[in-house]
């Protein structure tokens, strides 16, 4: 029985207008007259879909309010009452483009946008699979996307939205599937699985970048796509750029067990976005810059017990935990040339806070290792591992982790340097050998120069590097928002570029850090504005129970000729990981970021 506009379901939901999609063609926009809100109602012959959605509470999965049973002409009809969002399907977005794929945008190439979308979907799948649920029909038609590219996964019943590319086929006893996106084993008759969901994720990202199915043109008849799928004929991407190796792993046509699971897919996509968001400087230019420092003997910060001094300036300065340490250049310690023994190296001078510098090492096997040098304020930590002497510097070798290896260099004035080699895609052999080489080089530079060499040039006018993070949040304001914070519980970071406060009453921590990274995206949280600056507030962005407010302060020309972005990152964390605790921390983050933003200088 087809419903009519204006009908009332369950004495509560007024049908407003029919919406496209749904295997039964019964999807409506409706008004919840009890709560005065818009909802989407969908008739389903699979009440199990309602039970599946009822178990899911995830930001990237469409929320189900209730399952409604209504009398029908022959049997009960089941209606899913779902959240209504001002979103459209990803399939509709692609259909509205000239080439049927994501458009190239300034600052956001199609492969990057696809990776951002894929990361959100991988997180959704990870949550879905953790509850023993298989989606079974991941495709652009079942992905809702907003203007800011925030996506939600929906339609957990195996259904089609019409049209050849997303037509759902059922051949006798064979599992229904969408030929353009279903895994080969499913199109041969196997039941959907977690591995098949991962393949469909890869097939969706392939379509976003290529404008076609992994099995051929989206305009091809479905039976042709099925024929190619059954023999495992999967095309290689031509426009996916750095995303291509990830797609190759997701789209393994022969061995479902060889595909990464959803959690591994998430980490792979995070790796693509993390590594490629850095703006790399040419190796030759970076090495020449470091050599120039050694030749000219530029301004040096010289560590010593009780403080350092600037060579050539002839005057004592305070220890570098405050503004006096800002001339120290972490990139002068980067082992760009020395690490070439392990592979190709690129220097990244514009990533993270102003007290760090990174060398991106690509091994002969194609693994990408981030080798970070980070300057830290006194006092140095008490070493938990044995130390050894490298000239006047003490070296602490921390036990290696699964994905990183860290070395600490303790300077005479108790300032310290962190050297870390990290590979975020599941670990890499030889990380500690890389970390050792990088740490030995940094210690040699410090020992020979008598300290950390100065920067080649001053920070540009208008940079956050001239600001004091602690001063942006007065303790009096903090104490009102987070009771129990005080000046005695303030931890000042290197160069005054970060500040951390701890509440002795609520055990809540507040951290404000200056950052350099890509512009704010939908992945960072709910869009916001503070004192005219673009921002985002992300619940759980730094782990369960946390809330992170990000503010984009300014953009600037980076050393590689691209565009860099300076940001403020304010994190509120504490005990308790429930929704109420997280929302309370987000309220505090919004209030505190509003204060910090108001104190920022204007260009």
Automatic annotation (TrEMBL):
Uppermost EC category: transferase
Domain of life: Bacteria
Protein kinase domain: residues covered: 13-273
Entry EC no(s): 2.7.11.1
Keyword vocabulary terms for this entry: ATP-binding, Kinase, Nucleotide-binding, Serine/threonine-protein kinase, Transferase
InterPro entries: Kinase-like_dom_sf (IPR011009), Prot_kinase_dom (IPR000719), Ser/Thr_kinase_AS (IPR008271)
Residue ranges of the region described as Disordered: 307-326
Oxidoreductase as UniProt keyword: no
An example Gene Ontology molecular-function term: protein serine/threonine kinase activity
Pfam families tied to this protein: Pkinase
PANTHER family: MITOGEN-ACTIVATED PROTEIN KINASE KINASE KINASE 20-RELATED, SERINE_THREONINE-PROTEIN KINASE NEKL-3
Listed name of the protein: non-specific serine/threonine protein kinase
UniProt source species: Streptomyces boetiae
């Amino acid at each position: 029985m087809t419903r009519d506009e204006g009908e009332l379901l369950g004495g509560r939901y007024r049908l407003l207008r029919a919406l496209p999609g749904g295997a039964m063609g019964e999807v409506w926009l409706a008004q919840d007259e009890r709560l005065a809100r818009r909802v989407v109602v969908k008739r389903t012959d699979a009440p199990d879909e309602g039970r599946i959605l009822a178990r899911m509470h995830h930001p990237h999965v469409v929320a189900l309010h209730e399952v409604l049973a209504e009398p029908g002409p022959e049997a009960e009809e089941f209606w899913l009452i779902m959240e209504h969002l001002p979103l459209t399907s990803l399939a509709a977005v692609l259909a509205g483009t000239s080439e049927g794929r994501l458009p190239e945008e300034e600052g956001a190439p199609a492969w990057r946008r696809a990776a951002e979308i894929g990361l959100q979907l991988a997180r959704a799948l990870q949550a879905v699979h953790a509850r023993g649920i298989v989606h079974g029909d991941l495709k652009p038609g079942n992905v809702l996307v907003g203007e800011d590219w925030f996506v939600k996964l929906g339609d957990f019943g195996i259904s089609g939205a019409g049209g050849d590319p997303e037509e759902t086929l059922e051949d006798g006893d064979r599992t229904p599937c969408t030929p353009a996106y279903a895994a080969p084993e499913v199109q041969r008759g196997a039941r959907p699985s977690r591995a098949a969901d991962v393949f469909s994720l890869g097939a969706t990202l392939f379509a976003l970048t290529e404008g076609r199915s992994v099995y051929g043109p989206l305009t091809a008849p479905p039976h042709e796509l099925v024929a190619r799928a059954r023999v495992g004929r999967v095309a290689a991407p031509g426009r996916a750029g750095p995303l291509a190796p990830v797609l190759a792993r997701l789209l393994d046509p022969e061995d479902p067990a060889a595909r990464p699971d959803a959690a591994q897919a998430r980490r792979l996509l995070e790796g693509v976005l993390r590594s490629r968001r850095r703006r790399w400087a040419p190796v030759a230019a970076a090495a020449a810059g470091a050599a120039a420092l050694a030749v000219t003997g530029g301004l040096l910060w010289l560590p010593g017990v009780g403080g350092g001094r600037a060579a050539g300036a002839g005057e004592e300065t305070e220890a570098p935990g405050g503004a006096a340490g800002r001339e120290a250049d972490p990139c002068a310690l980067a082992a760009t040339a020395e690490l070439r023994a392990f592979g190709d190296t690129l220097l990244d001078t514009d990533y993270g806070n102003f007290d760090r510098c990174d060398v991106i090492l690509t091994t002969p096997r194609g693994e990408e290792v981030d080798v970070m040098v980070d300057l830290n304020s006194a006092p140095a930590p008490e070493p938990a591992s044995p130390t050894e002497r490298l000239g006047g510097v003490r070296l602490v070798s921390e036990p290696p982790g699964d994905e990183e290896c860290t070395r600490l260099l303790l300077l005479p004035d108790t300032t310290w340097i962190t050297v870390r080699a990290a590979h975020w895609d599941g670990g890499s052999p030889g990380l500690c050998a890389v970390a050792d080489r990088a740490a030995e080089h940094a210690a040699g530079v410090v020992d020979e120069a008598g300290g950390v060499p100065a920067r080649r040039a001053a920070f540009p006018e208008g940079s956050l590097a001239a600001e004091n993070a602690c001063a942006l949040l007065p303790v009096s304001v903090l104490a009102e928002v987070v009771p129990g914070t005080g000046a005695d519980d303030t931890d000042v970071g290197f160069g005054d570029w970060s500040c951390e406060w701890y509440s002795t009453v609520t055990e809540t921590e507040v951290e404000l850090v200056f950052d350099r990274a890509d512009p704010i995206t939908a992945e960072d949280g709910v869009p916001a504005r503070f004192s005219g600056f673009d921002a985002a507030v992300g619940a759980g962005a730094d782990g369960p129970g946390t809330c992170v407010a990000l503010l984009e302060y300014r953009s600037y020309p980076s050393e590689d000729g691209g565009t860099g972005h300076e940001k403020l990152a304010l994190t509120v964390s504490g005990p308790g990981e429930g929704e109420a605790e997280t929302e309370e921390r987000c309220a505090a983050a919004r209030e505190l970021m509003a204060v910090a933003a108001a104190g920022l200088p204007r260009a």
